[in-house]
Amino acid sequence: MTTTITVAGMTCGHCEQTVEEALHGVSGVTGVTVDRESERASVDGNADAAALVEAVEDAGYTAHA
What we know:
Elements: E1 2-8, H1 13-24, E2 29-35, E3 40-45, H2 49-58, E4 62-64
Antiparallel strand pairs: 1-3, 1-4, 2-3
Domain HMA: 1-64
Protein name: Heavy-metal-associated domain-containing protein
InterPro entries: HMA_dom, HMA_dom_sf
């Protein structure tokens, strides 16, 4: 299953990497693609959307599913 969340506040490649690492840390995530220009992250696996949003927000960005 793929879940797409909106992530605001990314301005560079390092931001993308930070969000990707935060999402990979969520239980059930098997793959992540982050695109700062579209402000979206696509997450493969069976992780709960609320947990994904929380991980991104804990990393310092604004997110919603």
